[in-house]
Amino acid sequence: MMVSAASHQTGASTPSPATSQAPKHAKGSHEPVMLKEVLACLAPQDGETYVDCTFGAGGYSKAILASADCQVIGIDQDPNAIAAGKTLAQTPEFSGLRLVEGNFKDLDTLIAPQTVDGVVFDLGVSSMQLDQAERGFSFRFDGPLDMRMSQSGPSAADLVNTAEEEDLANIIYQFGEERRSRAVARAIVAARAKAPITRTSELADIVRSVVRRSPSGGIDPATRTFQGLRVYLNAELGALESGLLAAERILNPGGRLVVVSFHSLEDRLVKTFLKSRSGRTGSGQSRYFPDSNLSAQRQPTFSAPSGRSLKPRPEEGNFNPRARSARLRFAFRTEVPAWEDQDAGLAPRLDR
User: For the chain, which domains are there?
Assistant: First the structure.
C-alpha cells in the first residue's frame, strides 16, 4: 500500500492511490502516467510549492493545482512545451503556475533562491514529442532524424552519420541495452557509406535488417537503438543524476520527491540514489554504475518508505500503453543538510 506524505507526517489514514481523486482527461488527450499514484505520494497541501520538472503538456501541473491552493513551477527544456504552457498559465484556474525554460539538471539554479515542498520527475520523452513526426523521436512516423529535446545542438542524424562504429556500438549497448549493438553499428556505418541517414524510417529499417523481432512478438527491433541514441544525445542520465542532487538541495524538510521512469537504466539510477541517500545498503547495483560508499558515515537526507518501485494499475496499462513500463519511486526529505557531492557517480561513463 502506498504511504501518502500527509499520513507519513501526521499519522493520518493512508489514501489508496486507486481511490485518490485526479482530474479526468478527455479522450485523446495526453494522459499523465500514474497520475493518481503521483498525487497520492506528493499529497499537495494548501500554501505549498511544487516543481514539475518535466512540464510537457502540463498534466501533472494541472492536477497538482486542482488538488490544493498551491503554487507549481513547471520546468521544461523544450521551447514548444513552454510556449504551449503560457496560455494555460494565463487562465485564472491555473494562476498558480509559473513556467521556466531550462534543463532540470539545473533545477536549483533555475528556481533560486526558492525552496519547495515537492519535486516530481516524469522522465523520458513526452507523448507530445513522440506524436510529432518532425521531432524525430519515434519510428511510428517517418520524419527527420532529430531527437533533440531542447531543439539545439547536434541531432541524431549528426550522431549516426559521424560517430565511429565502436562509439555507436557502445552508445546503443549502454543506453539502449541492445545486445546486437555491434551488428547495428556495422549496419549503420555500411548504410551511411552509400548515403547519409536522415530519416527515422531509414534508421529503423537498418536496425530491423540485423535485429529480428522475437518469435513471441514483443517490442519493435528498432526500439532499443532509438532509446540508446536519444538518451545519449540528450545526456538524460547525467541530467537525472544532477536533477536528483538539485532536488535534495531545494526540498524543505518533509518535502516529497516523486520520480516516474520508463526504462531500467533510469529506474536503477533513481533506486541507487535513494538507497544511498536513505542509508539503505545491499547489492543489485547495475554493472554500469561504479561501486560507491557515499552513504558510509553520513546521515540520511531522504526517508524512503519502500525500497520497491510502484507499478501502474493494470487498467491504466490497458488504456495507456505508454504506462506499461512505468515505475514510480518516492521519498521524503529529512532535516539533514544536503550532502556536498557535486557528482554522485551514478550516471554511466559515456553520458555527455
Answer: 5-25+33-128+236-333 (3.40.50.150), 151-233 (1.10.150.170)
